[in-house]
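User: Teach me something about this protein's shape.
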Amino acid sequence: MMYRYSGRSLDSIIPATTMVVAVCLALTLPATAADESQQVQAAQTQPAPPSSGPTKSITEEDVNAAVKKTIDERSKGGAFVFHDPKLDADLNLVFEQVKGIRGMEGYGWFANTIFYDKDEAKKQYAIDFWFKPEGNDLKLMDIRVQKGPKQEGDGYVMVTRLPVAWWWLPVQEHPGSMEVTRAWQVMSAIHSYIATNKDENGNLPIKDDKTGGTIPLQFVEIHQPVRHLKNEGEYFVCTDFRKPGSKDEYYDIDFWVNQKSGKLEVDNVKIHKVPVQEDGIWTQQPRYTFEGMDFETTN
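Assistant: First, the predicted structure itself:
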């Protein structure tokens, strides 16, 4: 797959190289100059057509305007307020620049931006804004931290947050790898489902098969690997959600994705593990296992 990418100093299309992505880890890796160069110098496809309404060719200026509009709407007291689901904390950030813009056909537009902490300018964040065309406009789907600050001596360095967002995975794929369904495509279908079905508070209502009730949960992240059931042909992926207002009450939610209609669609959402408090510590109790299931890992 090829990508249309724009940055402050990029105007060429280059081949992608391989990215090694950590699996199901909650660790961080230092961002090196080589990492920065690889990620920012990725090539892109033509912009995706609008999902509905009159056809409009989305431009970099449109994406920049959408980023500015989002920042303006969510700023208070001179700072952009972003609730980081990973840390479950509000970050008060000051915008510095749009570092690069990528368009992925059929998946949307992604603006990689740089912010710094309002109270400590040395603490920088790389924040991704994900938009999808909707008529003549760009609809904000999600905002994710790509890199966060880590203290080293008297200063800070930005480190890549793991697991990386799915839109960074195809950047480094080799030509021809799109002949089969890729893990990032399954992850994008799940993320689109979550972003589209959130309630007014930003939580996803999850049906509890055991109690029959519905639980609103805050999306945290999508795990890897993506698994493919050999017999059924479906894919399933584990994700982390948190009970709103809680720091430690995590749910493991499984998403089942099929391709019967010709495109990847979520057709089932199940609670895999529920939070249980034992001796004052929250742990997760599984409701079922994957024993006896014949599956393979999708890269």
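Now, about its shape. Confidence is low (pLDDT under 50) at residues 7-53. The first helix runs from residue 33 to 40. If you'd like, I can walk through any region in more detail.
User: That's plenty for now, thanks!
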